[in-house]
Design a protein that fits this description.
The structure holds 2 protein chains of 2 kinds. By secondary structure, chain A is of the alpha+beta class. In chain A, 36% of the residues lie in helices and 27% in strands. The N and C termini of chain A lie far apart (48 Å). Classes of the chains: A alpha+beta, B alpha+beta.
Chain lengths: 433, 97
């Protein structure tokens, strides 16, 4: 690392949160250094596929014109699948709220914005340690080199090696974290638009639950990109690991994703497609539980996934917009702190206050009970089975079709679940979703 | 079949890994230090890249195909697995994620 001068601010990690901070701080005239371990910003990024635009526009009003947007989400689908059968609900949106893209591309764009604003981005630098002396953060260490700054923004992501070393967070609990495994399937844009009934530049986001996860907690996702489709599974690590040890999960996780790609209900949507990339990453299940005891210390702020800022509502997941917003709040807090004598612990407290007043924290709190749903196997095994069986009674009758309520009661009985239990569980889940 | 032949088929994990790009570091960044007490079955089935396998009774970690997701780190103690990111830009190079 050939960086010898001192900086006002060092940002660790050129992801969405780090880039937002770096961009706003550089724009405000600060000397900002961003250290990124990947080769080029974005090369370590993996997500499902969609971002909510409005929080991003607050940082980059030019987003719609300039950002590498693939498709504006015009349809949201939800499916329960079991065996050969599937039950699907579709919602057609009335306006442009979220878009699909490759996060690798989007983050690269964010990094270029930060660079054009004056931030210095040095990639291929792995930060090994945040340097602290007498309770004050002085800079960061990479290999034998130390770079100094008045403040450090930790945007290291979900895997918090640095914060753990600092003692600011505990080691991750497998029950609070999920594994996402993804395939990217290349497909001609015309075929994507025909198959999913989309206009040009329109996209679809699809959440799938049922036996695509073999009934394990979690679900599948499908996002249409410009000329590819992203598919994958998200499995909370705690329950999946237990299932592996109990012999309930016998196959490798890549086989589950493959079964999803080859699933009779879905496969014809991408039958000509080739897998052009495969990968995985961890994602947050219980954001609030991941939040560090403090989001700041003398000379340090924590943003993005590192701070647990990912909202899982059960049917949508928001991580990139919350990351960008936290990066923005951190930049604002730092600018105020520098105007008030420096980034001391006392002056940076305002960051935590800003977060707690923002939609990030309200959303995390509002949806925190989704964890109870996500950890209850009932919603991933019995419920989809009963729903599918009830639907089969309605739609697969050769002669006599039962009334709706009878189809449900019979399905519950045949699946050996009490109808009251289902109603009770559904009543609870409706309150949590 | 027509010219738009179906490509739907089973792809072996080894072949699937060929679709992604790595710049493999010559030094390993993840290492099994102590197998005792490790959640071997979970590591083998959940590491998305299949980096963990058994050679007889011994757990082998092949770091070359690692995507640095951290799942094995979450499933183990720091005395069981040494876990670092690969250094200086090495490792997985995602393009379409």
């Amino acid at each position: 690392m050939n960086v010898t001068s001192k900086f006002d601010i060092i940002v660790v990690g050129a992801g969405p949160a780090g880039c937002a901070s770096a961009y706003l701080l550089a724009k405000a005239g600060f000397k900002v250094l961003v250290l990124e371990r990947g080769r080029g910003a974005g090369s370590k990024e993996l997500w499902g596929g969609k971002a909510y635009a409005q929080p991003l526009r607050e940082v980059w009003p030019e987003l719609d014109k300039e950002a590498p947007i693939h498709r504006w989400v015009s349809k949201e689908r939800f499916s329960l699948v079991w065996g050969e059968r599937a039950l699907t609900i579709e919602y057609k949106l009335g306006r442009k709220v979220a878009f699909t893209t490759y996060l690798t591309e989007l983050v690269n764009w964010m990094a270029r914005k930060a660079e054009n604003a004056g931030a210095i981005i040095v990639d291929e630098v792995r930060v090994d340690e945040i340097v602290v002396k007498e309770g004050r953060v002085l800079g960061v260490k990479s290999g034998g080199d130390t770079v100094y700054a008045d403040a450090v923004i930790d945007a290291e992501g979900v895997n918090r090696l640095l914060l753990e070393k600092l003692g600011l967070v505990e080691k991750l609990n497998p029950d609070h974290i999920a594994l996402g495994v993804k395939e990217v399937l290349s497909l001609n844009p015309n075929l994507i638009e025909e198959r999913f009934m989309l206009g040009k530049d329109e996209g679809l986001a699809w959440f799938v639950t049922g036996d695509v996860t073999l009934g394990l907690p979690g679900g599948g996702f499908i996002y249409t990109m410009r000329d590819s489709i992203s598919i994958g599974l998200v499995l909370p690590i705690g329950p999946a690991a237990k299932a592996a040890e109990a012999g309930l999960l016998k196959e490798h996780v890549s086989s589950l994703v493959e079964a999803f790609r080859l699933h009779p209900y879905f496969r014809n949507l991408w039958r000509e497609a080739d897998v052009i990339e495969y990968g995985g990453r961890m994602t947050i299940e219980a954001g609030l539980k991941l939040m560090p005891r403090k989001l700041y210390m003398n000379g340090l702020l924590v943003v993005g996934d590192a701070a647990g800022f990912l909202v899982n509502t059960g049917y949508t997941i928001r991580g990139v917009d919350t990351a960008v917003t936290s990066g923005k709040l951190a930049a604002e807090a730092l600018i105020e702190a520098f105007n008030n004598g420096g980034p001391t612990e006392e002056n940076l407290k305002s960051y935590e206050e800003k977060v707690k007043k923002s939609y990030i924290y309200r959303e995390l709190k509002n949806h925190s009970s989704i964890g109870d749903v996500m950890s209850d196997p009932f919603f991933f095994q019995k419920l989809p089975q009963v729903a599918i069986r009830a639907a089969s009674k309605l739609f697969e009758a050769d002669y006599e079709e039962p009334k709706l309520i009878r189809s449900f009661l019979d399905a519950a009985r045949e699946e050996d679940v009490s109808s009251l239990k289902i109603i009770y569980k559904l009543g609870r889940v409706v309150g949590k979703l | 079949m027509s010219s738009q032949a179906s490509r739907l088929k089973v792809i072996k994990l080894g072949e699937l890994l060929q679709r992604s790009i790595w710049d493999v570091d010559e030094e390993r960044h993840i290492e099994v230090l102590k197998q005792e007490g490790l959640r071997v079955k979970a590591l083998i089935l959940l590491c998305p890249m299949g980096c963990y396998s058994l050679a007889g009774d011994k757990l082998i970690m092949s770091y070359e195909g690692c995507v640095e997701c951290g799942t094995c780190r979450v499933l183990s103690g720091s005395d069981q697995i040494r876990w670092e990111y690969p250094k200086s830009g090495r490792g997985i190079q995602y393009r379409y994620m």
